[in-house]
Amino acid sequence: MGITILLTQSRDPTSDYIQTAFENIHKPISRINLDEFNVPNLSINPLQRDGGWIEDVNGIKLKVEDITAIILRRPAIPTFHKDETKNRFLRREFLFGLRAFLETTSAIWMNHPDSNSIASSKPRNLKIASEIGLKVPQTLISSDPVEISTWLKKHDDCIIKAISYGLMEKKNSAEMAFTQRLPINFNIKENILPGVPILLQEEIEKQADIRVTLVGNNVFSAILPQEGNEIDWRKRNNAKWNLFKLPKLIEQKCVRICRKLQLEFAAIDLVKSTSDEYLFLELNPNGQWVWIEEETKLPISNSIVEHLSRG
After folding, report:
1. How much of the chain is in helix, strand and coil states, percent to nearest 5?
2. CATH hierarchy code of domain 138-202
3. What is each CA distance from 221 to 61, 68, 126, 137, 179, in whole angstroms?
4. Which residues are in the ATP-grasp fold RimK-type domain (predicted)?
5. Of 24, 58, 114, 253, which sits with the fewest C-beta atoms within 10 Å of its C-beta?
């Protein structure tokens, strides 16, 4: 029986959840927390198909040919040296060496780092969603005041959101840049920094948010009814998600996005408009899902185990 490697960090509740799901049905999984100092030893010969190995937390050598699945779940990288320049070099060497080892396996990735990187682009994902037939909001990404002014004249109600993942990290904490409604008196000169683009979208009058979690070809959907005139449900303290069945055609298009991006896992945010249309907002290749499973009892974790155990 093959083994799954979980590359993560010591303080990740989702990884705890995944590990427990594997252990509950006696499927082998080896968790490696890359933020800890007991980083694994490894060895490979690039000219040989087999023979490479990596140590687990107990010092047991896992053979490259026995690794059938790799879960990449927000790994944090350890500090190797107090000198910052040397530490950056050693971290890079460690990551390149680890990836060189993992690339010698024939394992299924959830997800491959290249796929995660490509799928983290909001503009690309909007384009792909539109190409396969999903409706997407009218969108502008620009740092040019003239372009922004012209676009705003054509769209009365707009929202502004982060182009990246919207997390403003501080030394010992982080602050979320929530999606916001653009003020009517938005002053372009005062709010736009030269050369720094912003992402604007037409505001969709919605009746609900929908979170779609995909594991392989399995689609799990949950719905959150609209409350008042809120823009970003993450600000809500009492959000209650419920089971929801998407139309088959929308499910198929969500799967097609993941196949196009070569993802085995993704979280997709949709909205259902007041005119009963489904619109694609964004895709996160490493999105959260545990709260959805706990609230709706959707078997997402079991689906992950089954999907990766097929290898």
Report:
1. 30, 30, 40
2. 3.30.1490
3. 39, 28, 20, 21, 22
4. 120-307
5. 58
The answer to whether residues 62 and 105 touch, using CB atoms and an 8 Å cutoff, is no
The fold adopted by the segment(s) 3-110 is Rossmann fold (3.40.50)
Q: What average pLDDT is seen over the chain?
A: 91
CA distance 181 to 210: 19
Q: What would the mean pLDDT of 68-84 be, rounded to a whole number?
A: 90
d(C-alpha 91, C-alpha 278), whole Å: 43
What is the C-alpha to C-alpha distance for residues 284 and 270, in angstroms, rounded to an integer?
A: 12
Angle in degrees, 0-180, between the axes of helices 300-309 and 13-24, rounded to the nearest 10: 60
Residue 49 identity: R
Do residues 12 and 20 touch, judged by C-beta distance below 8 A? no
Distance CA 37, CA 35 (A): 7
Chain center to CA of 289: 10
Cα-atom radius of gyration of the chain, to the nearest Å?
22
Query: What is the spatial distance between Cα 91 and Cα 114, in angstroms, rounded to a whole number?
Result: 18
How many DSSP H helices and E strands does the chain contain?
A: 9, 18
Per domain, the residue ranges of the chain are 3-110, 138-202, 204-298+305-309
pLDDT in tens, 228-238: 888 888 888 88
Mean pLDDT for 215-244 is 91
204-298+305-309 under CATH 3.40.1090.10, yes or no: no
Q: How far apart are CA 219 and CA 27, in angstroms?
A: 23
